[in-house]
Structures are given as structure tokens and as C-alpha cells.
Amino acid sequence: MTSLSRAFRASILPFLLVSTSPLVAQQRAARPRPVPVATPAPAPAPVAVDTTAWLYKGSDIAPDPAWSFGTLPNGLRFAVRRNGVPPGQVSVRVAMDVGSLHETDAERGYAHFIEHLSFRSSAYVPDGEAKRVWQRLGATFGSDSNAQTTPTQTLYKLDLPSATEAGIDESLHILSGMMAAPVMTDASVDAERPIVLAERREQPGPQVRFQDALRETFFAGQRLAERSPIGTEKTLLAANGTAMKAFHDRWYRPSRAVVIISGDMDPALLSRLVVKHFAGWRPIGPDPADPDFGKPDPAKPATATIVEPGLPSVVAMAVLRPWQFNADTIVFNQKRMVDTIATRVVSRRLETRARGGAPFLQASISLDDQERSANGTFTTIVPVGNQWDAALREVRAVVADALAKPPTQGEIDRELADYDTILRTVVETSRVEAGGKQADDMAEALDIRETVTAPATSYAIFKDARTKGMFTPDTVLASTRRIFQGDATRAIVNTPTPETGVAAKLDAALKADVTGLAGKRRVQAAVDFSSLPSLGQPGAVTGRTTMAGIGLERVTFANGVRLLVFSNPSETGRVYVRTRFGGGYGALPADRPTPAWAADNALVASGVGKLDQGDLETLSAGRRIGLDFGIDDDAFLLGAMTSPADYKDQLKLMAAKLAFPGWDPAPIARARAGALAAQAGFSASPSGVLGRDLEGLLRDGDPRFTTPTPQQIGELNPKNFRKLWQPLLATGPVEVMVFGDVKTDEAIAAVAATFGAMKPRDGNLPPAPAMRFPAHVATPVIRTHDGADTQAAAVIAWPTAGGVAEIRTSRQLDVLAQLFSDRLFERLRQASGASYSPSVQSQWPMGSTNGGRLVAIGQVAPENVGLFFRLSREIAADLAKNPVGADELERTIKPMGQQLMRASTSSQFWMQQMGGGTVDPRRLSAIGTLGSDLMGTTPGDIQALAARYLRPETDWTLAVLPKGKEAAAVAK
């Protein structure tokens, strides 16, 4: 096992395994194994397995020796490897080489529909039982067991925690039946159809309509133009068992299947189990050739326009070339690396202009293969306001300049430094790369017809390209010119409101002479960490204690700064740094609106001292250094994931940001423009309305949590932004956390030299305003949206509490919420097909004794809003009246316990648990009961919690309905 040091495993995991006896004492009665409903042909014995590394056929890239390959006589291929991240988990993927591009016009949506049917019932599990089997094995439906359908692939995914040979054996047995013999009858299709239609209905309308228009424009004349995986309502309503089985038998064949397994188990055993369960699969009928996906057609219209009020103005352009298979060779990858550098150079120039007040908020260039249908160079522009034509001209000018003159070697080296860091980081952290990611990467490589290899090999290919001098101004110029040439050029513009002559304006902007419009290229000044303001002399340590059993060190400095440092060598190459300071939401005014909302986009970007965002990016080029900002209930947060080599400078940057914040006005203007652009999407769908209004409503209108109005956004300026944030950055306690691959004494010295060197701060904070919850309503609060009249959303919430004193309650409320969610899923989705993904969550603020809530949300048709409320209240009442059964509780707690086990191998998890522990030591003490609080939850605990909190006289409801259908909300 390579993922976790023995010392770390021994010190942490006991906390998660304490006192599981209440659960064990209620073990369910033995259940008979499900009776098979169909039987694929048994596997012949013995089976001759071709162990050739099939993935690397035609490639000169060194195979990754960690992977073992095989091909069965029936054509099925597999790839397996050992991986112990997280410990005990085995990740299984079954990749089927079929997607929506394989459908006929009458079959649109069938590939995705079959994904649903395969999970519903198949050869070895009756209707709905696969979900329960995997829950009993510790897997969580939706995150650990899931599937996805793209235009070219259907991928089935299972992450099995604490896997045993028996568990993997049973899982592969089930998966083999899902692939070879899903139940496809008129009855099963009719049962699943409402769920598929609900998924289609709940898709965000504005984004879907724009993406549909974009595909129809870019890929006109090709299958991709009209083959969204979700299908059409007409074809989904017409689907029946016979037609669905015909599609399945045609495309679900062992020769189109690849089983991928990466996990904490012997690869030889995994190979044997694949052979055991998949070698007997026999195809049905003739093997069809792939349909012709077509090529970009230059004769099709080059431009299109769309009016989508739910989106801001957007311009998208593409230069398209035919997709063709390329052997995944070293030279092919090195040339593509040059192309990547070329796009990064142009994108950085565009970003620099956006920061400097250009008529666009964002603009970028990317190079991509699209679903084996085209290779394209894509340009995306988000204008400021409605200045899309000016934005398009300016972006074209920057591209024209890049086509006319080579970049400087300095520009190239800047991008190479970051690219080198990306590849080197993968090498340095490869020991802790999760098995699920490795399996997903393999599936993606299959889909795009490429290979995977060891991170060190990829890095060596890149370094070899540099040694050969492949990244020069002339080669990057040649690459830029090549990627902006193609067989077809397309452009589409969206305007939120109808404009006169949009098509003509688009044509004119595309043809306009932009010579000279790009102006002079900006030359970035050379800066390094010595350019940051001086923090002073290192601070003295005034206290240092060790938390027994974990190895966590608590340190205090003379200036009042507190430190939590946790050396975790198993986090190879990773160091997590987080600073909690001030009072968070508790320090913001609760009686008036403020520009606090702009901090996400403007606070970090406003710079440090005299250094602006461009300077800071140059300073950190080629380094794993960043700066993220967030707001917690009782603290503001600065965070980053860095490296053992870079974390000391990361600390210096964070400390300088607190001690010497910059106030560049440009990010303020950009944040204002971005917030105004986002307004269009809020009213366009139920999810948009919820995103805008729900948090403020659940906080009873508290302005700290409400979305700013257009008027409030327009009032944002550098003066009022600085007036709010300057004192917030300068006051309140400071807690620094350094977790990961560090040496404790060195980390303490690094914090002493940075945060410890800062001037003492006023650590006192005024009392935080209480968090409120709205009063019970007899009928739902109504909000309306402007989207499709088939879409609605419903919310029901109950107040709970908050704070560390009742931490056990908060953890058991998570169990209650998961039980509630599973029941709502079964009744609202599986039984009635009324909602695709209803959910229930418990939210418990650690930094406040109030403000907690349990919230259930479902997107439904307007006529089913009342059904959502009725079912939710019935479930709540039953949970309060009757104890849950032992099997149901186990199927809930076991996956949650497994998620906890997996999360506990990450330093990020422990940072989240321990945050604020130097201010309130009870948070550190509460770690000791983490496992017992969850795993020791009993039916009586759940019933008592439901009776305490899920009271009908305290619930609050909201319905989001199409305008004109407000009467659809039914209170009872």
C-alpha cells in the first residue's frame, strides 16, 4: 500500500472506528440472494487471454507499467492496476463505445435511456436492487455508482470502498448482467420514461438552448449538430422495449466494451474476476460499422444569431478541421504541446486586456477534438454589457497581431514555466493520485483514441521537446498560424434582448479591418518575491503543544497569531495552507447591504501593495502558488494548495495580502460588470431563481446573505469597496493552518517569518448578529421564473441549531438528512418519476449557535409541486413517528462511514474539521467522537431528532413557478 504512511493510518483512523456496536447490534436478518431474471451465457473454461498492451498499439510512448492489459476471445478488453488511494477502495469503470452519435433519427436519446435501464434492472438484480446492493457494500448512489452518456461513449462507474474479493466479485457479476442483459420490456421502459423525461425537463433551459444552437451552427451537416445525448421528447415518448433492445443488441457488444479497474487489490485477482464474469458475454446479431460522423462542411452558413434572455451577450467562434485518428506518438504529443503554448500566449494577452478595461469581461482560445467529429480552435468572448461587436473586433485584433508577429521568448518562457509546473506537480503527487481518477483518465483516453502513461513519462516527453528547441518564437508563430486555419469558420452571437441588424453587425465585425487595433503589446515588469512589502522580523513562539494521538501541533506567536501544523508525509508533494482571520459573516453588517459580495472576484485580484494581479502572476510563474478567498460563518479565509518547495513563499504572499492589501480599481470595475452580466440568468429558470433568492429567504432577508440587486451592483466603486474591506482585513484573530508534506519545525519557522512578523492585531470582535430563519408559512412563498412552463422547483426547510456544543447532533442530522433524501428519491423519482434528483441536506454552522436548517429541494413539473410538499411532509412525519429499520439505517450509515474513511486520508478533510480550533479548542476535542457520533447512530436517535426538528408548525416552504402558473403551488 502506497497511499498512507503507517503512522498516519495508526493515529487517525481509530477516531473513525470508535463504538460501532449500536449499529452492529442491529444487523439485518439474512436476505436471500436476488433471483436472476435473465442469464447471459456462462463463461467457458479455461479462457485464453491475450495480455498484449492493446492501448499502445501504434504508439511509441512507453506503456505505464502499473497497468496490466487483457483481451478476451469475445473481444472485450480490460485494464487493471493496483492503487491504494484511498485505502481499500476499488474503482471500476465499464466503457461502452457507443453514444448519441450512434443513434438513428428515431433513436435519439436511446443510448442515455439504456444507461438508465441498465441500472434499473438486469440479469442478476431485480428492479431497483442494484442501488441497495451497493449501498450495503458501502457505496453511495450518485457519487460512487453512476453513469454518463456522451455523443461517443457510455461510461458506467462504481467506486467500492473497503472492497473485499466477495464484494468485487458480486459487483462485477452485477455489472456483467447490466451490460449483456438489462431488462428491456415495455413495462421497464414505461417505468423509467418519466425519470428520463424529468432529467430532460430539469436541464437549465438557457444554457441548453445556446449549446444546441452552437452545435447546430458549428457542426452543420454532421451528426453532432443534432445529437444531444438527452434526446427529444418525441423519440423518448415513442420508445418501447423492442426498439430499445434492438439498439442495445446492435451496439452493446463485448468488442465495444472495456473494463477498467484501479484499486487496492491484487491486479491478478482483478483480472481473473473480469474473465470470470465477462468472458461468457456473446454478441447478438451482426457487428455494425460505426456511422459516418461527417466532416465540417464549408458550404454551410458561417454565422448564426440567437436571442436568449437567460444568458448575457456571448460570442463564440470556431475554426474547424476534420477529425482524424492520429497515432499517439511522442512527436505528435510534442507538436500538440507547441500548439497548447500558442493558445496560452494569446489567451494571456486577452486576459491582460480584459483586466485593463477592454470591452470584454473574458476571452480565451482553446484547441480541442470534438467528439471525433472535428478538430477545432475555439474562441469564446463574454462582452461587457452589450458591446459584443466591439469586443469581437478587439479579440480579432489580438489574434491578428499574434498571426502577424512572433511572440517574445519571454512570453513563451512564461507559459512554459506554468506548463512545466503542471506536469511536474503530477509527477510529484502521483503517489497520492486517486484510483478513481486513474480509471476515469483511462476511459477518457479510450474515448478520444489516445493513450495514458506514467506522469514521469509525460514530463520527460515535454522536457525532451524543450531540449530539442521546439518552443521558439518562430515555431510558436507557425503553430498559431496553423491552428487558425481550417476547412470551415463559424461564429454565433447571443444577445439577451432582440437587436436590429444583429446578423449584419456580426458579419461586419468578422470582416472589419482590425489592423492596428491591438495596439502595443504589454511588457510585464520583472518581479519576484523580494518585490513584496517587508513584513518585519520573525516573531517569537510563545506556546507550543501537541495534540496526543494525532501529532497536530498548536503554536502561538508573540503577536497573537496562532498556528495549527500537521505533518503528513503521505500527502506526497502537497501542502495545504489556510488562513482564517477576522469574523466572517459574523463581522459583516446585518442591517444594510454592503459590497461584500464583490470580494470573491475583486479582493485577491486587487493586488498586494503596489503589485497588481499581473505582477502577482509573474511572481508565482512556474511555482505552485495561488490565493483563494472565502467567507465562513465566523472567519474570512485565504487558502491554497502548494508544494514543499513553495509553501514558505505561499505563506509570505498570504501574510503580505493581509498586512499590505492592494486596492487596484480595475478588478472592482470588472466585478461590477460581471455581476451585472449574471443578472440575466437568474430569472430564466427555477434553478436560477433559487440561486439568486433561496439563501436570502432562508436567512429571513438578512442582507449578508442576499444577492445584490442591479442597483446595488451599480453602486459598487473602489471607494466603498475599500471602506468595507480595509478594516475587515486588519482586525480579528488570525489562525494559520499548514497541513501536508512538511517538517513541523520548518513550518513553524516559516510562519514565524511571515504571519508571526506582522504587527499585532486587535483580536477582539463585536458580537456577531444572530442568524435568522423565516417564520412558518401556511402556504408556500412564491417566486416566478421566465423559463419553460414545464419547469418548477419546490423547497421545504426546517430550522435546527448550530455550534460545536451539539456537534453530535449535527453529525446525526447528516444521517437523518440522508435517510430523508433516500426516501424522497425513492418516492418522488423512482415511484412517481416526478423529479430526477431531489435532495435533502442538513446545514449546521459551526461558528454560530443558530442558523442551522434541514432543507429538501426538488425540481418538478408545476403540477407536481403539491406532490413534493405532500411526500416531504409524509416522510418527515413518519421519521418522527416510527423508528427506521435496521437494514435501511445500515444502507445509509455504511456508505457515509465509508465516505468518512476515504475523506480522512486527505489533509483537506482535517483542515475542515479543525478550522477555528485555536480559537475554540472544543472543535479539536470533537474530532475524537467523529466516528462514534456517526456510526453509533441508532433508530431511536433518528426518531428523536425528527421529532425535535421536523415539526409541521416550524417548516417553511417555497415554490418557484412559471409566470402565470402560480396556482400550482399547493400548501398541504
The total of beta strands comes to 23
- Global geometry: globular
Based on secondary structure, the structural category is: alpha+beta
Largest sheet: 7 strands, mixed
Question: What is the overall pLDDT average?
Answer: 93
User: Beta fraction of the residues?
Assistant: 15-25%
Number of helices: 32
Description of the molecule:
The chain is of the alpha+beta class and 972 residues long. The chain is built from 32 helices and 23 strands. The strands form four sheets. A seven-stranded mixed beta sheet has the order 12-13-14-18-15-17-16, sandwiched between helices. Strands 1-2-6-3-5-4 form a six-stranded mixed beta sheet, sandwiched between helices.
Task: Give a topology summary.
Elements (H helix, E strand, L loop, with lengths): L5 H12 L3 H4 L43 E4 L5 E6 L7 E7 L13 H11 L8 H8 L8 E5 L4 E7 L4 H16 L5 H17 L2 H14 L14 H6 L2 H11 L5 E7 L3 H12 L24 E5 L6 E9 L7 H26 L4 E11 L3 E10 L4 H17 L4 H20 L6 H13 L7 H13 L5 H11 L4 E8 L6 H10 L29 E7 L4 E6 L4 E6 L7 E7 L17 H4 L10 H7 L8 E4 L4 E7 L4 H13 L6 H17 L3 H13 L11 H5 L3 H13 L3 E7 L3 H9 L28 E5 L6 E8 L7 H25 L7 E5 L9 E8 L4 H17 L4 H18 L3 H8 L7 H4 L4 H6 L3 H11 L6 E7 L10
Parallel strand pairs: 2-6, 7-11, 14-18, 19-23
Antiparallel strand pairs: 1-2, 3-5, 3-6, 4-5, 8-10, 8-11, 9-10, 12-13, 13-14, 15-17, 15-18, 16-17, 20-22, 20-23, 21-22
